[in-house]
Amino acid sequence: MLPLPDLFATLLHAYGPQHWWPGETRLEIIVGAVLIQNTNWRNASRAIDNLALAGLLEWPALLASDDNTLRACIWPSGFYNVKLRRLRSLLNYLAPWGLEHPRWLALPLQTLRAELLAVQGVGPETADSILLYAFERPTFVVDAYTRRLLARLGADWAQRASYQALQAHWMAALPSDTALYNEAHALIVQHAKTHCRAKPRCADCPLLTHCPFGSGC
Ligand code: SF4
């Protein structure tokens, strides 16, 4: 299989820098990491727009918001009752320190990750998204696109691998670098939307010459 650094370089050359996460502030990124669960970015983005219009992308306002208002804002992201509870749990965890406290940058990465994973509704992908994009900590985000891309490129094991194993695979192949992990995940998402969809568009894919799956399309 194409070595991961070469895969990264090819995607970067094809799509250019992605300037992720698509959110202006730390709070918006954290909220977005919950709202994107089990939906697409368009739906999550509509919910974020509603929050912005309601003035709830401000830390004190969001903490003080009532459930009905919050639910009405986030409904376009789907599973809104579940996401409301998850958002509240996450806010309750963050609230004692606020978002600008030095602990988010000072605590060992794995300590912080363990804390986030202990919050109700925060799984590995959400935790790593928050760590990487909101707190700029060097951890790799794995998603379904990452898994599918590796499998199509010849790493059959990726379909059955654990999140942990896939993450370790990427982090062993790329230097521990926040900007690099940020860009790599964003490029994989871009590639999955542009070419490597559920029904892939292989003909003009920048990875075609390295892809056993695409060669057989
Ligand atoms: S050639 Fe097709 S299957 Fe392979 S990476 Fe490109 S889009 Fe995906």
Q: Could you describe the 3D structure shown?
A:
The chain has 217 residues and is mostly helical. The chain folds into 2 domains: 90 residues, Helix-hairpin-Helix base-excision DNA repair enzymes (C-terminal) (Endonuclease Iii, domain 2, Orthogonal Bundle); 109 residues, Endonuclease III, domain 1 (Orthogonal Bundle), CATH 1.10.340.30. 59% of the residues lie in helices and 0% in strands. Helix 1 packs across helix 12 and helix 3 crosses helix 5. The longest helix is centred in the last third of the chain and has 17 residues. The radius of gyration is 18 Å and the shape is globular. The model has no long low-confidence stretch (mean pLDDT 96). The site of iron/sulfur cluster has 13 residues, from helix 13.
Main sheet characteristics: none
Q: Please count the beta strands (DSSP E, at least 2 residues each).
A: 0
Q: What's the end-to-end separation, in Å?
A: 18 Å
As for the number of domains, it is 2
Instruction: Give the full name of the CATH homologous superfamily of the largest domain.
Output: Hypothetical protein, domain 2
The CATH topology of the largest domain: Endonuclease III, domain 1
* Shape verdict: globular
Provide the β-strand percentage band.
under 5%
Name the hetero compounds present. iron/sulfur cluster
Low-confidence stretches: none
Determine and state the CATH class of the largest domain: Mainly Alpha
> Total helix count?
13
Report the C-alpha radius of gyration, rounded.
18 Å
Mean pLDDT: 96
Q: What are the secondary-structure elements, in order, as H or E?
A: HHHHHHHHHHHHH
